[in-house]
Amino acid sequence: MFHTNAVTPPGHRYATGVVIRSTGSWIDVQVTGRVVRTRVRGRFRLRGWAETNPVAVGDRVTVRLNGDDTGLITDVEDRRNQLSRRAAGKRIGQEHVLVANVDGVWIVQSVRLPRLNLGFIDRVLVAAEVQDLVVGIVINKTDLADDADTERLASVGGLYRSLGYTVHLTSALTGEGVDTFRSELVGATSVLTGPSGVGKSRLLNAVEPGLDLRVGAVSDKTRKGRHTTTHASLRVLSEGGFVIDTPGIREFGVLHLEPWELSHHFPEFRTLLRSCRFPACTHDHEPQCAVKEAYLEGSISEDRYYSYLNILHSINLGDADVGR
């Protein structure tokens, strides 16, 4: 990561800690026994031009302690991993680091309000696998499910479990699946990510009632979630471990992949890759493609294949579209 290589001035006190919250202008660092409000040394922003945020929640940092109980981050340790997405808006093309140094990623979706978005799930699965992160899926708000939803959940859950991913069905309202999901978080540093309104904060409140995270409702007009979590924050779990709640995300652009590499992050494609005519086949337009043949024969799901094509298209264009 970034190191200042600066000579330590005499008279200054330094401490190491973990970033637990970042609001942009201030960064909260957990130092032994207390939380220090800090800012980032300017040269980090100059050297971190490829990232929108050179310091992220989960980073281990060195802080120069000031006399007014604030601090200045002077050094960031190398990360063992990070979950990133392509920055949206005017900064598109840059990398936005959501969290660093985590043991697992949980993609949270809801049965409805907002609707289940398999394209979003597949994008985060790919992004997590690029970083060799353990990743699973949580489908929340099962209390809203009707008979058609229940059938759909069984199909979706069966599909992703067959690919080797852990899938939990939960309801923060009824408590369904909460205890099982809680056991996944014990002893680990985990991050929950997903669109606004899927119930990440409410689910964490059910897992750990003492967190008292703010929760909101889905907009009646747009049927999309409203942002109630505005900044990522790391919280301690009473049974051991840490959990990071993140703001809702509507866009998740995949980074650090060439088009021909994408298929290696779709488990159902991997055994077929050597059977394609071309070694660098993108499984889109090429003839004698084993992946396309498997899709046409029905052994690769339509949702997954079109999700793959959507991500492939966005990589080619450098786009951040979430996919549908």
What would your notes on this structure say?
The protein is of the alpha/beta class and 324 residues long. It has helices at residues 42-47, 118-130, 147-162, 178-185, 200-207, 267-270, 290-297, 302-317, and strands at 13-22, 27-31, 34-40, 60-65, 70-76, 82-86, 95-100, 104-110, 134-140, 166-169, 189-193, 233-236, 242-245. It has a six-stranded mixed beta sheet with strand order 10-9-8-11-13-12, with helices on both faces. Strands 1-2-3-5-4 form a five-stranded mixed barrel. Strands 6-7 form a two-stranded antiparallel ribbon. Helix 2 crosses helix 8. 39% of the residues are buried.
What is the strand arrangement across the widest sheet? Answer: 10-9-8-11-13-12
Mean pLDDT: 88
Q: What is the terminal separation in angstroms? A: 34 Å
**Main sheet attributes: strand count, strand direction, barrel closure:** 6 strands, mixed
Q: What Rg is obtained from the alpha carbons, in whole angstroms? A: 21 Å
Strand content: 15-25%
**Helix- and strand-based class?**
alpha/beta
Number of helices: 8
- Low-pLDDT stretches are 1-8, 217-227, 320-324
Helix-strand sequence = EEEHEEEEEHEHEHEHEEHHH
Shape: globular
Share of helical residues: 10-25%
Number of strands: 13
In short:
This protein has helices at 42-47, 118-130, 147-162, 178-185, 200-207, 267-270, 290-297, 302-317, and strands spanning 13-22, 27-31, 34-40, 60-65, 70-76, 82-86, 95-100, 104-110, 134-140, 166-169, 189-193, 233-236, 242-245. With 324 residues, the protein is an alpha/beta fold.
